[in-house]
Design goal:
- The structure holds two protein chains of two kinds.
- By secondary structure, chain A is of the alpha+beta class.
- Helix content of chain A is about 25%, strand content about 30%.
- A nine-stranded mixed β-sheet of chain A has the order 5-4-6-7-1-8-13-12-11, with helices on both faces.
- In chain A, α3 links the parallel β4 and β5.
- Chain A is globular, with a radius of gyration of 22 Å.
- Chain B is an alpha/beta fold.
- Helix content of chain B is about 35%, strand content about 20%.
- Chain B is built from 13 helices and eleven strands.
- A nine-stranded mixed β-sheet of chain B has the order 3-2-4-7-1-8-11-10-9, with helices on both faces.
- In chain B, β5 and β6 form a beta hairpin.
- Classes of the chains: A alpha+beta, B alpha/beta.
- At the A-B interface, α12, β16, β18, β19 and β20 of A face α4, α5 and β5 of B.
């Protein structure tokens, strides 16, 4: 049996209230919220967080391939999947590949993985931008999703069939280097997508040998909002089969969105005792054509305990003022602290310390047990030399011993919240906090680690770990 | 500790110190020339009479050439020294050892820093290329974690702690107001300290050392030669230094209420100088008050007050100019300013003035009959610190 072994979504902590846009700009906005990546997140770090959750929900994983799909890659030319793999501490023998650019790459990765033979970790992340007060800014969202695809009895949702309709027309486009998309007149795209979506849906059911009435869950995603809602109606399924598509809470997360909603649907069914094994789930994604996938849930889904469901992450979010959103997206340039900006990271130094920098791997003295963060050759207790074992700390929770707020230090979003953290089971590290308001800080607060981009200089991104308040469903 | 010390082997016979200020009109070379000229004059020597030079600067220049060029020293042994904020005192330690070893008759330590050309606020470290995982916190933020930890451990509530820290700032400004070379020469009130904008944690602008340009210099000779140069030499009783391993940052046992490196350096210095009761044997102490909580904790690390009691002593005025043990009678880093490479030597300069009764009358301490003065200079951060401690005296024996 081949299919999805584990899956997870990652919704960043901050939410922009759409009504806040109109309050500030005098127009635009809408109802609900959209998810906003923190100033220290990019598609690579979003992808890492989703993949960490998917692996944790699987109870560990050793995929043969890692495929990373995004329409807003942190690097071009350089592969971003290698950074994701390094942060996950996956073997260097895997194939780590980017599938970039188009909004179709995420669903393309998933289908290709499902139709292939290798155990593949499909990761997709996007950050969606628009011009202030525009529809894309409001409707878009930042999120990531990951799906572990492979064979065996642990499969949660078996792959049944897929069908694609590819078509060349210009509805939404973005030139390399541009931050925001441009759109053709809405009715043209709607017309194309309705036809393509119906075609792909009809063909995939035919290949699967199923009728419309066999479909238990229908997920339709795509950046063209009218086409998505129009197709959902036209396919004629009952309302109960159409789950929340997360556009009112997360927003349309582009390439990541079909995987994100699929993860959310499987999580909902896993926690729902009335869900029968064998439920047919169809995902249709509209982007330069239409892709349809049919999956069938298994008995394993009942036993599956997702580490941190998308619904929980949505509930845990905290509001971000629109002005801060604009600053984080580079649309407003607040006065920075009058301190020098950091210099670019040394590639060779970063490479020597890749396990520490990307994997948050310290060392433990075999004799004294003293934990060293970063790893050290000489022990601070007893002085043993070269008698250390590597110690991965990324999934270890900790407690705030003391903390401070630095209003003077350089940060892309001052002030810096900084704490001395003692980890469960030993080890201390002074570390910057993120996804936190200074007022929340208290000695004794529980924290967990998260992979972030500290800053960028000369186009080189400085990836490292920060701590964030431990919230339900975390490593703690 | 394994140090033998060089008690009474070396004397300081000449010193110079520029005003510490935002010297927009003076470059590093000007500051060096000014401080050295004063030192040469006070010891009645010429630059060629000095056999070897140690030049301390943290970031204002590299190599001994940075000193040799402005002074036009020809083929002299000139060495640049750097050791964070202890850079200036390290230059003096090297010069003193060189003379004590017999290698040279006359050696000079010069410390200088041109901070205000960076265009940025505060002090900024220029770090070597790295992997991007080092913290980028300011020193103020690192030291700001001390006061809450201290308060919690010893049951000092936030309001009292704020009062204690403000008292330290007020005292050092009071002293600095009586020092024509100090950067800040205005007395301040506790209210000013408490209402100043917060920079890091609960530390406000007035909890932090002044950032200034400046230079200071000292000429050292063998003790037996001292009276050839001046009738009031001051003798080196102790020189100690402790560099921490940095493990305080990652050791769950460290609690941010004390600086073990400073305790270690003080213990060694007291042994070298034969001091058993520093609070009553010392006439004064210059200590590294980079931030107000630093001075508080140092009062305990240096043995001036038992653990957990220094805050009461501060409130009682024990360390005031007319207190039982005057601390930072020149205004300290807080009011005198902190040109990194010069600060350690500036501390010696105040001991030089006070023990020779050359401080301005409104700042002259009344405890000089004790004959000994301390210099405590530190670098780095809580958990990852360097500490220098020296004791000097007005007489041999």
């Amino acid at each position: 049996m081949r299919g999805i072994i584990s899956t997870a979504g990652y919704v960043p902590y901050r939410r922009l209230s759409r009504t806040g846009i109109a309050d500030f700009m005098g127009r635009g906005g809408g109802q609900g919220t959209r998810a906003v990546a923190s100033h220290d997140e990019d598609t690579t770090t979003l992808g890492v967080e989703a993949a960490r959750l998917a692996i944790r929900s699987a109870g560990g994983a050793s995929p043969e391939s890692l495929w990373f799909a995004t329409s807003s890659p942190a690097y071009l030319d350089k592969t971003n999947a290698t950074a994701v793999a390094a942060a996950l501490r996956l073997s260097g023998e895997i194939g780590a590949y980017d599938f970039g650019g188009a909004l179709r790459s995420g669903i393309g990765c998933l289908i290709t993985a499902l139709r292939g033979a290798a155990t593949t970790l499909v990761v997709s992340a996007d950050m969606r931008d628009g011009l202030p007060s525009g529809a894309d800014e409001s409707a878009g969202g930042d999120a990531a999703a990951a799906a572990l695809v492979g064979d065996g009895s642990g499969v949660l949702a078996e792959f049944v069939a897929s069908a694609s309709a590819s078509d060349e027309f210009t509805d939404r486009w973005r030139a390399p280097g541009d931050r925001v998309s441009k759109l053709w007149e809405e009715r043209f795209g709607e017309n194309r997508y309705l036809a393509l979506g119906q075609d792909a849906f009809a063909r995939v059911l035919k290949v699967a040998g199923l009728e419309t009435t066999d479909v238990g869950r229908l997920v339709v995603t795509g950046m063209h909002g009218r086409a998505v809602s129009g197709l959902t109606k036209k396919l004629g399924l009952s309302e109960s089969t159409v789950p929340d598509d997360l556009t009112r809470s997360v927003g349309q997360s582009g390439t990541a969105h079909p995987l994100l909603v699929l993860a959310s649907v499987l999580e909902e069914m896993a926690g729902n005792p009335s869900t029968e094994p064998g439920t047919v789930v169809v995902v249709v994604h509209l982007a330069d054509g239409a892709d349809a996938v049919v999956l069938r849930t298994t008995g394993a889904l009942r036993q599956w305990q997702p580490a941190r469901p998308v619904s929980l992450q949505i509930a845990q979010g905290a509001e971000l003022p629109y002005a801060k959103f604009l600053a984080w997206r580079g649309q407003l340039l607040p006065e920075p602290p009058r301190r020098p900006e950091p210099a670019r990271v040394s590639s060779s130094a970063a490479y020597r310390n890749v396990e520490w920098k990307f994997g948050f791997v310290g060392s433990r003295d075999r004799t004294s047990g003293a934990v060293h963060l970063p790893p050290s050759r000489v022990s601070m207790v007893g002085g043993a030399v070269d008698d250390m074992e590597p110690l991965g700390m990324a999934d270890t929770a900790g407690t705030v011993v003391t903390f401070t707020i630095d209003r003077l230090a350089y940060s892309p979003s001052p002030p810096i919240v900084f704490a001395i953290v003692d980890f469960d089971g030993g080890g201390r590290f002074p570390v910057e906090l993120t996804d936190v308001d200074p007022d929340e800080m208290k000695v004794g607060n529980r924290v967990e680690m998260t992979f972030r981009r500290l800053f960028s200089a000369d186009g080189i991104h400085d990836y490292f770990w920060k701590a964030r308040p431990a919230r339900q469903g975390g490593a703690a | 500790m394994g140090s033998h010390g060089i008690r009474d082997q070396v004397a300081i016979v000449g010193m110079g110190c520029t005003p510490f200020a935002e010297h927009w009109g003076k470059g590093l070379d000007d500051l060096i020339v000014d401080a050295c000229a004063e030192a040469f004059t006070s010891a009645a020597v010429q630059k060629d009479d000095v056999d070897a030079y140690w030049f301390g600067t943290a970031q204002s220049g590299m190599s001994g050439i940075t000193l040799a060029r402005p002074l036009q020293l020809r083929n002299k042994p000139v060495t640049r020294v750097e050791n964070y904020c202890t850079t200036g005192s390290e230059a003096l330690r090297a010069a003193a050892y060189a003379v004590a070893s017999g290698a040279y008759d006359v050696a000079m330590a010069v410390g200088a820093e041109k901070v205000k050309d960076s265009g940025f606020q505060g002090l900024n470290a220029m770090n070597p290329p790295g992997d991007g995982t080092a913290r980028t916190l300011t020193a103020a933020a690192m030291f700001s974690m001390v006061a809450p930890a201290y308060g919690q451990k010893y049951g000092v509530d936030d309001e009292t702690m704020a009062d204690v820290l403000a008292s330290i700032a007020v005292k050092n400004h009071y002293n600095g107001a009586r020092n024509p070379r100090a950067q800040f020469r205005r007395e301040i009130t506790k209210e000013t300290v408490l209402k100043s904008p917060r920079l890091a944690g609960n530390l406000g602008v007035f909890d932090c050392a002044g950032v200034a340009d400046g230079a200071a210099a000292a000429i050292v000779v063998r003790a037996e030669d001292a009276l050839k140069y001046t009738d009031k030499p001051i003798y080196v009783k102790a020189l100690s230094f402790a560099a921490g391993s940095g493990s305080g940052l990652i050791d769950p046992g460290y609690d941010y209420t004390h600086f073990p490196e400073c305790e270690a350096a003080a213990a060694d210095a007291y042994l070298q100088a034969g001091i058993t009761d520093p609070r009553h044997q010392l006439a004064m102490a210059e200590v590294h008050d980079c931030f107000t909580p630093t001075e508080l904790v140092l009062m305990e690390d240096l043995g001036f007050a038992p653990r957990g009691t220094a805050w009461k002593e501060v409130l009682a005025g024990t360390f005031a100019l007319d207190g039982e043990l005057p601390v930072n009678p020149d205004g300290g880093l807080k009011s005198f300013g902190h040109p990194v490479g010069a600060s350690g030597l500036r501390m010696f300069f105040e001991c030089w003035l006070q023990l020779r009764h050359e401080a301005p009358a409104d700042r002259q301490i009344g405890t000089t009959d004790r004959g000994l003065a301390m210099i405590q200079n530190l670098g780095g951060y809580p958990g990852e610190m360097l500490s220098f401690v020296s004791v000097v005296g007005a007489a041999l024996g």
